[in-house]
Amino acid sequence: LKVHGIFASNMVLQRDKPIVVWGWAEPGKPVSVVLGKDKAEAKAAGDKGVWEVTLPAREASAEPQAMVVTTGSEKVEMANIVVGDVWVMTGQSNMAFGLGKTQHADIEIAQSNLPLLRFFSIDPNEQSAPQDDIPAEKISTKGWAVSGPETSPDFSCIGYIFGARLQRSLGIPIGLIKSARGGASIEAI
């Protein structure tokens, strides 16, 4: 049993949209996904055992939820999931440039304890064909990271500043997904 690499503890799910979760399991096996009080089921199909479920849309919420995905005796558990707005950031070196490398970074880093701001960083991963999943070794934050002095220095400076300002002004969870690489075209990222 496996879920797509974007799904992990500490993630932010997009508010006001149906929540689609997918992954892989032994072909033909039933898969159950529970998020808080909501539950959806699917059957792993095809040679690869692909499954997908859709859970109901939710309003923004900072109340941490758990997600449990099961098939037979296998289980994937994720915790501290919130619902808000998710932004995808891509670009070249200006987007990849980390907060910790900026002038006076110590001031921003000291103020980065924002539990409703979450980061997900994908290292450069150019491929010649579309990919089904993100290789685990290319997820530089090892999943979703909660903003704080330990996690913010390595995240995109532009992304952090944008996300922190947005989170503070809206008062809802904000998720930032960064996939940037200096000198790359948008098609390659």
Task: Tell me what you see in this structure.
It is a single chain. With 189 residues, the protein is mainly β. The chain contains three helices and eleven strands. It has helices at residues 93-96, 105-110, 157-170, and strands at residues 2-3, 12-14, 19-24, 30-35, 38-43, 50-55, 61-71, 74-91, 114-122, 145-147, 174-180. The strands form two sheets. Strands 2, 4, 5, 7, 8, 9, 10 and 11 form an eight-stranded mixed β-sheet that branches. A three-stranded antiparallel β-sheet has the order 1-3-6, with no helix packed on it. A hairpin with a 2-residue loop joins strand 7 and strand 8 (74-91).
Record the SSE blueprint:
Elements: E1 2-3, E2 12-14, E3 19-24, E4 30-35, E5 38-43, E6 50-55, E7 61-71, E8 74-91, H1 93-96, H2 105-110, E9 114-122, E10 145-147, H3 157-170, E11 174-180
**Strand content of the residues, in percent?**
35-45%
Order of helices and strands: EEEEEEEEHHEEHE
How would a textbook summarize the main sheet?
Answer: 8 strands, mixed
DSSP summary, beta strand count: 11
CA(first)-CA(last) distance: 28 Å
Q: Figure out the total of helices.
A: 3
Key features of this structure:
3-stranded antiparallel sheet; 189 residues; 8-stranded mixed sheet; mainly beta
Quick structural summary:
The protein is mostly beta strands and 189 residues long. Helices cover 13% and strands 41% of the residues.
